Amino acid sequence: MEILKKILIVLFCVTLAILVYTACKPVVKDEGKTDDNQDYRGAPEQIITLGQAKELFDNYTERRVNLIEEYESREGQESFDASRYGEYDYETIKQYLAFIEHEAKAANVKISKLRIYFGNYPEKEKFEDGRAVKYPRKNTFLILPTLKKGADDYGFYINQGKDGKKEALLITERFPQDPGQKMGNVGSGTQSYASFVPNTAPSPYFAEESLILNEGSMIPPPRKKTDF
After folding, report:
1. I need a surface site. Which of 67, 115, 165, 190 has the fewest CB within 10 A?
2. Who's near 219: CB < 8 A, 6+ residues apart?
3. Which of 102, 194, 101 minimizes the C-alpha distance to 141?
């Protein structure tokens, strides 16, 4: 009986020592994972230096900002500050990436790239759907996902049929272009105007779902100091 007690005491002490060691042992974070368990592969090769970023910013200031402000002044805009940057809060970007990945998976396609188009807000108070135009005449950008078709990448949107099934359709099929026109433009005489106005009406039997992100904050207005 005494021997059994000694064995139990030894086992208890060993177990207690293991528990204490485990509790006190520092947790070594897996360098291959981020806090949300996403794969971490270091910085992408497209990262540029601070000096290069400053050079690009200054080039835009010298080559574009004055031209934009002079043009808008001639068009009757007494005080016009060219946009210097746009921004989204980080959570919006995370939500957007999760959204387009979810929709692409539902349509059984794989996102190949994120494409950024430059745009310009119209000089009016509201869009046709009633949404307010926050920055009339200001430049902006539109972000959309692409899919691979053959050797090329194409922006796409989602169509949902009457049966609820989702499919990915190309934006180029939604907005047909003449071969002689510039990409994304609708010609008028000797001029070309950037346009997202469809040349064909959508089918009433489908529900279109856009994957295009806009509605960021364009600065200025108000006037703020930039990072550079």
Report:
1. 190
2. 83, 84, 85, 86, 87
3. 194
Q: What is the DSSP letter of 45?
A: T
* 140 membership: H or E segment, kind and range: strand 139-149
Spans of all domains in the chain = 90-216
* Residue carrying the six token digits 């990409």: 183
Cα gap 138→106, rounded to integer Å: 35
What is the pLDDT, as a whole number, of residue 13? 47
The secondary structure element, H or E, covering residue 112 is strand 111-120
- What does the DSSP assignment read for 122-135? -SSSB-TTS-B-SS
Whole-angstrom CA distances from 79 to 18, 58, 103, 221 are: 72, 22, 42, 11
Distances (CA, A) of 57 to 72, 79, 142, 224: 21, 22, 20, 15
Low-confidence spans in the chain with pLDDT less than 70: 1-37, 77, 178-206
User: What pLDDT score does 207 carry?
Assistant: 81
Buried b (16+ CB within 10 A) or exposed e, 171-199: beebbeeeeeeeeeebeeeeeeeeeeeee
Q: What is the pLDDT of residue 112?
A: 98
Distance in angstroms (rounded) separating the CA atoms of residues 124 and 208:
25
Place of tokens 């600065």: 219
User: Which residues are CB-neighbours of 139 under 8 A, at least 6 positions away?
Assistant: 68, 82, 83, 118, 119, 120, 121, 218
pLDDT at 221: 77
